[in-house]
Amino acid sequence: PLKAASLCKTLAELHQKCSQAPPTPFHLALKMLDEKDGLCRVYTQNIDQLELKAGLSCGVPQTHHIKETPRCIPLHGTLETLACIKCCHQPQLHSHILTLTTGCLPLCPACQQIEYQHQIMHKHPHAPGILIPNIVLYGQTHPVGDYLEHYITSDANGSRHRVKADVLLVAGTSLKIPGVIAAVHEFARAVHAQNSGGGYRSIYLDQKPPSSKWNDIFDAWVSGDIQIFAQHLIR
Question: Which residues on neighbouring strands pair with residue 213, listed in sequence order?
Answer without folding.
Answer: none
